[in-house]
Amino acid sequence: MRKNFVFTLAISLLFIGCSLDNDDQYMLDNITGGGVNQNLAGNLTSNLTLKSGVDHTLTGALIVKDGAVLTIDAGAKIKALAGGTNVYIMVEKGGKIMANGTATAPIEFTSNSTNPKAGDWGGIIINGKAPLSRKANSESNAATEVNTTIYFGGDVVDDNSGILNYVKIEYTGARIDDSAEHNGLTLNGVGSGTTLSNIAILNGDDDAIEFFGGTVNASNILVVNAKDDMFDFTQGYTGTCTNLYGIRENQFSAVTSDPRGIEADGNLDGNTPTDINQSNFTINGLSIIHNGDGVSLSDAIKVRRGATAIITNAYIATGSGATFSDVIDLTDGKGSASDHTDIEAVANVSNGLDISDNKNTTTGNATVVIISGNSGGGDNSVFSWTGYNF
After folding, report:
1. Fewer Cβ neighbours under 10 Å: the N or C end of the chain?
2. How far is CA 332 from the centre of its chain?
3. What is the arithmetic mean of pLDDT over 17-28?
C-alpha cells in the first residue's frame, strides 16, 4: 500500500510537468521538486514560481495575465524553443515578473538550440500602466507591436511590473514585419515602481532594449552584439538610465538598415509630432564601443523627432575598420531633437573616429559637446557577474 501511494504521487508530479498548449491556462502555484521538467506556454492566471535546479523550457508564448505573478528564483535557467516570433514571455498590465537574481546566482534566459543564434526566440515584453506620448485630451493607451489585442500605458507613474535584477537574456529578437519586431527586452509603458538593474542582453537580432514610453529607471545594462539599436527610446519615455554599456564585437557583422548605439524619438516613429508628453530622459554614464571591422553603424547617438535627452559622461569608440556615419545626429526627415537636448561625450579617435561627423541642426538651446580622449563613459567592472571578457 505504501509503495502504491508513492508511485501515484510520482505520476502526479510528472503530469504537472507535461507540456501545455498555448490555449491552456496555467493554474499552477509554486511548483517544486528536483528533476520535474516544466514546459512553459499559455496564459498564466495564477502565481507560478520557477525554481533553480529544475529544467524550464519556454515552448511558446507565455502570457502573465493581470493579477498573476511569475517568480523566478535566483540561479534559474529558462531555455526557449528556437521558434522565433512564436516564443516569448509577455507580462500584461497588472501582471508581474519577479526575477531577482544575484551576482553569484544570476537568472538566465537563453535558447535551447544546440547551435544558438540571434533571433532564436522573441525575448521578454513587459507592459505597464505608466504614461505615453499622445494627442492632447486622448487616452494614454497603445497596442503592443507583437499582439495588437494587448494594450499598455495609463496614468500610473509609479506602476510596478516587478523586478529584473542580475538577469541575462540572449539569442533574442525576431522581426515580424517592417513595423513590428521582437527585441531582447521590450518595456511598454513600464512605471517607476519597477526595478531594472544588472541586466545583460547578448546576441540579439533586433534592438537589445527598447523603452516605449513609461517612467521606469534602469541601471547597469550591458548590451553585446545587437543587430539593430543597442538602446532605443520612444513614445514618451521619461526615466533615468545609469551606466549603459554597449559593445559590437569584431566578428558580429549582422546589421539592419540603420543600426545605432542610441536611438531616441519623442513620439512613436515620428508620426505624431504634436503629441504631448514626448520623450524626456536622462542617461548618466554611457559607453558605445563599435569594433565591427568593415561594419558601418548609422549613428553612435541619434536623438530626434521632438525627444529631449540629457546625456552626460558618454564615451564613444571604434575599432580598426569600424565606422559611424555620424557620431551624434540630432535630426532626421521627421523632425529634430528638442531644443533642450544636451549631450556631453568623449570620443576615442585613435582608430579614425571623426568627431566632426555630427548633425546638430536643431535651434535654440540644444548643445553637443564632444572632445577627443580615451577615458570616461560606463563602468564595465559592475558586469563581472556575466563572465563577459571586456
Report:
1. N
2. 24
3. 38
Q: Which residue has the cell 519615455?
A: 237
Q: Residue 123 class from Cβ within 10 Å (0-12 exposed, 13-18 middle, 19+ buried)?
A: buried
- pLDDT in the model for residue 181: 84
Rounded to whole angstroms, the Cα distance separating 14 from 11 reads 5
Read off the pLDDT band of 178 (50, 70, 90).
low
* 140 Cβ contact partners less than 8 Å away, ≥ 6 residues apart: 131, 132, 134, 153, 154, 155, 189, 213, 277
- What's at 72, amino acid-wise? I
133 vs 13, higher pLDDT? 133
Question: What mean pLDDT comes out for the span 348-361?
Answer: 92
Selection from 388, 42, 389, 4 nearest residue 198 by Cα: 388
Query: Rounded distance, CA 266 to CA 288, Å?
Result: 21
Nearest to 190 by CA among 167, 169, 226, 218: 218
Closest CA to 343 of 299, 374, 383: 299
Distance CA 185, CA 195 (A): 14
Whole-model pTM? Answer: 0.91
Residue 282 CA to residue 350 CA, distance in Å, equals: 28
Instruction: Measure the N-to-C terminal CA separation of the chain; round to a whole number of Å.
Output: 60
CB-facing half-sphere around the CA of 248: CA atoms within 13 A: 35
Tens digit of pLDDT for each residue in 305-315? Answer: 999 999 999 99
H or E element: which one contains 6?
helix 2-16
DSSP 145-202: SS-TTSEE--S-TT---EEEEEEEEESB-EEEETTEEE-SEEEES--TTSEEEEEEEE
CB atoms near residue 151 (< 10 Å): 18
